[in-house]
Structure formats: C-alpha cells, structure tokens
Specification:
The chain has helices spanning 13-21, 101-106, 176-180; strands spanning 4-5, 27-34, 43-46, 52-54, 58-62, 65-67, 80-85, 114-122, 133-147, 150-157, 194-198, 205-212, 228-231, 241-253, 256-263, 276-280. With 305 residues, the protein is mainly β. Strands 1, 2, 3, 4, 5, 6, 7, 8, 9 and 10 form a 10-stranded mixed beta sheet that branches.
C-alpha cells in the first residue's frame, strides 16, 4: 500500500494497515492543494463535508470538487488527471485581487500551477491526523476549461519534464537547463534585477526603475528579449508573468529615463506606479548568447563516423 504520513509527520503506514486488516471502519476523503504551500493564494480544498486538518499542510476547506481516475504504471509514462471544481459564483471584479475564480481561470491564472492530491483515512469522522494521508497524484495544470458553474483542470504529472525532443544536430537548442533553470540574470550580472513600476505603464508596456542590484541602471536594448517579467506580492498583478518582446531605454524628459518593457499578451490589469517586479533574461542556449555553459555544437551522427 502507499506510504501514509500522520499529522505529526511520522510514517503511519504499518498502523493504518493493521487498523484496516482488523476490519475497522474508515472514512475516506480527497485533499487537494492547488498552488504551492508558501503561496498565500494557494487553495486547500477537500471533497469532505467539513474542514479537515492535516498538520503537515494545514486546513483543507470543503468544496464541490472531484477528480478523475488515477492511473499507475511502471515506467516514465506521463499520466494526466482531470480535476473539476465548482466554486461559488462571487461578484465579478476588474482587478486581479477582486476577480472571482471563474475570471481567474479564464485569464489563465491557474495555468502551470502545481496540483497535489492526497487520500486521507479517517478512523472517526473529521479525523485526518491520526493516520494522515497518502500521496495520490502530483502535477501541473496543463489546460483549463470553464463552463457554467464548473472549472475543469487537466493536470499533467510532474514527469512531463522528461518530454524533451532533442534535435539531431544541436543539443543546446533544447538544453534541459534552458527550460528549467529558472530566472536568469542578464549578461554581466549575478543577481536578478528588481524594478519599481513607473508611469506611464499599461497592461502590455511597463516602465520600470531598477532598484537592485544597481539602482537606476538603464539596461541595453533587448538585454531581456525573450525573457520574462514577474510581478511581486503586493502588486495588482501579483504572481502573473509575461514574456518580453523587447526592452529599451525610455526618455521621459527632464533627464529622467526608465527601462521600457514591451510584453507579449499583456497582464490582467494595468500595473500601478509603485508595484514591484523582477525581470529575467532569456537563458543562453547557444555559444554566442553570452554566459553559456551547456553543450557545445554536436555534429549529426551520419557525419561523425
């Protein structure tokens, strides 16, 4: 059977097995976490009729939520799981903090969010701590579909990171590090630049004043091209990101200059002056890209004999 972890963080698998073997009655429930534990906007949900406390993670609140069938296979096959959620319909908002769950789903807010599902075994109704829960599924939201009173997440397992297509003649073009390394400083820097939004900014064009690591620095044209911009906590667009089409120096007049970022797609709401964000450069995937440390050029196998 799957490993079960109790509310005190100990392995309760053997105790649970003995409890079930003695033909004791047990109540089952699913626990869902949409987002990361440290994310204040993460959703802790359960299909049980009352809140369930499982101390390693927290309190899971009752919701109209259900999952599809979990498939287990030997090997590296990427599995998927459908999760359907019917949150209450709240009033419609115009800024990210005021959007209801259906608006957030339509705006792509939940896309690529981590989803974890556990199965808890309760010896008495509401007791999710004694024997705890076992891991059932983990992955990321691949697509979201909204309909009347329903949000459907298609979740691909975390193994989707192995789905890499390698071209025959250049390894670096799809270097694993290029896709999963995370934020990348621009050439010549060792820290990720932080910015404060300045006016005039819009959903697709953001003016930013660098605050660190070099306050007031104006970056070169397209230093961040094909990178991305992410708004920090406290912004109206907190947690959202967009790919950068181009960046340049913006002369606001009177000797005032800002870093100008034009992004693909745009954000949900106009950023407010004073909002903060960080900006990542594109990861260097070729030798000519600067701080490159991947594989060098590899010839096609038919010419390498």
């Amino acid at each position: 059977m799957r490993k079960s972890i109790g509310g005190d963080g100990t392995d309760t698998t053997s105790a649970l097995f003995a409890f079930l073997k003695a033909r004791n009655r047990v109540r089952l429930a699913n626990l869902f976490l949409i987002g990361e534990l440290e994310d204040p906007a993460a959703l802790f949900l359960t299909d049980y009729r009352s809140p369930l406390t499982w101390l390693p993670w927290g309190v899971f609140n009752p919701a109209s939520i259900r999952r599809g069938t979990v498939t287990s296979e030997i090997g590296l096959t990427v599995q998927s799981l459908d999760v359907e959620w019917s949150p209450a319909l709240d009033s419609f908002g115009t800024t990210l903090p005021t959007l209801n769950h259906y608006q957030l789903a339509q705006a792509g807010y939940y896309d690529n969010r981590a989803v974890r599902v556990w199965r808890t075994f309760m010896p008495t109704p509401g007791d999710a701590d004694t024997y705890g829960a076992c891991e059932l599924f983990g992955g990321r939201v691949a697509s979201t579909t909204t309909s009347r009173g329903n949000i459907k997440f298609s979740v691909n397992s975390f193994l989707d990171v192995i789905n890499q297509k390698i071209p025959p003649n250049v390894i670096e073009a799809t270097n694993t590090l290029a896709h999963y390394k995370g934020a990348t400083p621009p050439t010549g820097f060792t820290q990720i630049p932080q910015f404060t939004v300045a006016s005039p900014s819009s959903k697709s064009v953001i003016m930013g004043d660098c605050t660190s690591p070099s306050a007031g620095h104006i970056f070169g044209t397209n230093d961040f091209r094909y990178g991305y911009l992410v708004f920090n906590t406290g912004s109206v667009n907190a947690g959202l990101w967009a790919a950068i089409a181009q960046n340049s120096d913006f002369d606001a007049g009177g000797g005032v200059h800002h870093n100008r970022f034009q992004v693909y797609g745009g954000f949900v709401a106009d950023p407010v002056p004073g909002d903060t964000c960080y900006v990542s450069a594109a990861f260097p995937i070729n030798l000519q890209d600067g701080d490159y440390f991947g594989f060098p050029y590899v010839p096609p196998p038919e010419t390498a004999v």
